[in-house]
Each structure stands twice: as C-alpha cells, then as structure tokens.
UniProtKB/TrEMBL annotation:
<comment type="similarity">
    <text>Belongs to the Fmt family.</text>
</comment>
<dbReference type="Pfam" id="PF02911">
    <property type="entry name" value="Formyl_trans_C"/>
</dbReference>
<dbReference type="InterPro" id="IPR041711">
    <property type="entry name" value="Met-tRNA-FMT_N"/>
</dbReference>
<comment type="function">
    <text>Methionyl-tRNA formyltransferase that formylates methionyl-tRNA in mitochondria and is crucial for translation initiation.</text>
</comment>
<keyword id="KW-0648">Protein biosynthesis</keyword>
<keyword id="KW-0809">Transit peptide</keyword>
<dbReference type="GO" id="GO:0004479">
    <property type="term" value="F:methionyl-tRNA formyltransferase activity"/>
</dbReference>
<dbReference type="InterPro" id="IPR005793">
    <property type="entry name" value="Formyl_trans_C"/>
</dbReference>
<dbReference type="InterPro" id="IPR002376">
    <property type="entry name" value="Formyl_transf_N"/>
</dbReference>
<keyword id="KW-0496">Mitochondrion</keyword>
<dbReference type="GO" id="GO:0005739">
    <property type="term" value="C:mitochondrion"/>
</dbReference>
<feature type="domain" description="Formyl transferase C-terminal">
    <location>
        <begin position="237"/>
        <end position="341"/>
    </location>
</feature>
<dbReference type="Pfam" id="PF00551">
    <property type="entry name" value="Formyl_trans_N"/>
</dbReference>
<feature type="domain" description="Formyl transferase N-terminal">
    <location>
        <begin position="108"/>
        <end position="212"/>
    </location>
</feature>
<keyword id="KW-0808">Transferase</keyword>
<dbReference type="InterPro" id="IPR005794">
    <property type="entry name" value="Fmt"/>
</dbReference>
<dbReference type="InterPro" id="IPR011034">
    <property type="entry name" value="Formyl_transferase-like_C_sf"/>
</dbReference>
Length: 355
C-alpha cells in the first residue's frame, strides 16, 4: 500500500488529510472554548461574600488556588461595613484583590470565568451575571427548594427539621434561590442542635461541596437540574419579634426550637408582672406528677431537680428556664429568680404573660 495512504473502515484515506482533519477538529475545539470565553481549568473566580459563613468557602477556594490545579485566581467582592468585615479581613490576610459592592462591569469583563456567591445578601443584576462566561453559582444553606431566602438555617431549627444540607445552584437575575441545582448534600440535625452549631457544620460542608463542584465544572453546570415545584418553603429575613414568646399558643417544642434558632442572635422575651425579661437559656423539660390545673405561662419549681419550669400552650409540655435577666439585676439562674421574685408571689400570680 502507498505509504501516504491509511486504511480506515474500509476506505483508503491519505495521511495528510487526517492531519488536516486533526487540525480542523483541534481548531473547532479551540474556537468553541474561545466562544464561551472561558480558558479553564484552572478557573478564574470572582467571589461574592459577606459573613463568617462565606469565609469558610473563601478559605477553601484560596487554599485550592495555591495549588494552581483547578483554580488559578480568586478575587473578592464584599461590602465595606457590617458583616462584610469578616470576608475583607480574610482577603487582606491572603493578599487577595478586594472590590467594593456595587462593582462595575468593566472590572469583570474578560478577566474571570465564573462568579461564586456565598451568603452575600444582595440580588445580583443580570449585567453582572453576563460578565462571567460560565455564569454564577451560589452556596445555599438548605436543601432547595426548602427554605429559599435569607435565613434558611434559622428556619430549619425554628421548624424542628431533622434534616438539612447544602445546595450549589446557578444564580438567576431578579429572584433569589430559584436556579438549577448543580450539587446537593444532606446531613442530620440533632434535636438539641442550635442554629450556630448547624451554621458551622453547613459552612464546612458548603465549602467542600463547592470545591467538589469545580472538578468537572462544565459537566456539572451542563447537567444541573431544575428545582422541584413541590416542597417550596421560604425563610425570610429574621425579625426580632420572633423572639417574643406567646405562652398561650406555643407548645414546649415550639418554645425550645425558637430558643435554639435565635440564641445566637437574641434572647427570648417574655413578660413578668408588666416587665419585659430576657430568657438566655431554655430547655425542653419532662415533668412528672403534673398539676393538670396549670395554665399556659404558669411557673412551677421542681424542688427535686431545682428547676424553674413554665407550662406551655398548644400541644402542651414544659420548658425549664436555666438563665434569665430582669431589668436592673444581673443575669441569674432560674433557681435564683424563683427564690428572689417568684416565691413571694401568691400561686395565682406565679406566671409569665404573653404580649
């Protein structure tokens, strides 16, 4: 056979044509790559974040960038005040480039492959999203579509969920938390776990899942799936009024879950003879030999365990008050409050009131 011929599938093809075809195929791949404007891996990332939850993801991205394997560049967009100081301080320590929000599109055009948003708290305009050839992805602290919104961790605990997790999703303009799911990972929630404890757990999980998403990034983005239309719930920004206890309506689980959800933000609030007092530590409590005549808000002292307890409404139950503060006095135990304020009152006046 002529040395310039090559047999393929029953056809004789000139080797120089294969070379030309090879170049054509290679050229097409490069053209496609250039068309999408992305040159990775390794990937160039602009990170948008604002609080300690987002710092964990930024730490992991920065650590991976140091290896120059799947990430080559990480710059940061954050706010100049409030919680943004957490991200800013870390970025300064790592000598990352920092930009203030809002950011001009001229800073982004052609310099980054993808935007990463973690606990940023701002709606990203479409013109910013379009600056990134691969779009933008978000680390969200829930199993979407459950708990869309600003406070998924608080509402997970507030509602007594026993399962939570992290979602990596695509960012869409104009609405929060509706994008396609790139990756998800779930975890259990302990019945006594606080929102702060869950936050630390999910921030670590979110950072790890984010790094995992960058392995075969284009494939992961291509096969992202739409969120289900079923099971959608919302977690709006937390209002301080959530800390006010209504003893008539809330059962013991509701009160305890409220404490677990808010203890890192505010104490629970109740009324003692017209005075607003702060409850700094509350526990679910199982009473033995219960007085069935008790009404919601009534106080009882368990002498055997030396615990101050409150009768709850709704489905009932009791909570114990471990630590509280009354205006003009130091923070005290439930026992000290009973001895100093409750014991001297007639039994029908030993109660907390609802607003």
């Amino acid at each position: 056979m002529n040395s310039n011929l090559f047999k393929l599938g029953g056809f004789k093809i000139r080797k120089n044509l294969l070379v030309v075809l090879g170049k054509s195929i290679s050229h097409s791949a490069v053209s496609l790559k250039n068309k999408c404007g992305s040159k990775g891996p390794p990937w160039r990332i602009m990170f948008f974040g604002n609080d300690d939850f987002s710092v964990k993801s930024l730490q992991m991205l920065t650590s991976k960038m140091r290896t120059q394997t799947i990430i080559s560049k990480v710059d940061v967009v954050t706010t100049s005040t409030g919680n943004g100081i957490n991200v800013r301080n870390f970025a300064k320590e790592e000598k990352l480039d920092i930009y203030d929000w809002p950011i001009n599109t001229t800073i982004l055009d052609g310099k980054y492959d993808i935007g990463v948003v973690v606990s940023f708290g701002r709606l990203i305009p479409e013109k910013i999203i379009k600056c990134f050839p691969l779009g933008m992805i978000n680390v969200h602290a829930s199993l979407l579509p459950r708990w869309r919104g600003a406070a998924p961790i608080v509402y997970t605990i507030l509602n007594g969920d026993l399962t939570s997790g992290v979602t990596i999703m695509k960012i869409h303009p104009r609405r929060f938390d509706i994008g396609e799911i790139v990756k998800q990972h779930s975890c259990s929630v302990d019945k006594d776990e606080t929102a702060d404890e869950l936050k630390k757990k999910l921030s670590n999980m979110g950072g790890s899942l984010l790094i995992d998403s960058f392995k075969e990034l284009k494939r992961n983005l291509r096969y992202a799936i739409p969120q289900s239309e079923n099971g959608i719930t919302y977690a709006p920004k937390v209002d301080k009024n959530l800390s006010i206890i209504n003893w008539d309506l809330m059962d013991s689980n509701s009160v305890y879950n409220r404490y677990r959800a808010l203890c890192g933000l505010w104490p629970l609030i109740t009324i003692w003879h017209g005075t607003s007092i702060k409850l700094f530590k509350v526990c679910n409590y199982h009473m033995i030999n219960i007085d069935t005549q008790l009404n919601p808000g009534d106080l009882m002292y368990d002498k055997r365990k030396q615990k101050l307890t409150v009768k709850c409404g709704g489905k009932g139950g009791f909570v114990s008050i471990e630590k509280l503060k009354i205006p003009g006095h130091k923070t005290m135990s439930g026992k000290d409050f009973f001895n100093g304020f409750v014991y001297m009152k007639p039994k029908n006046e030993r109660k907390f009131d609802s607003r």
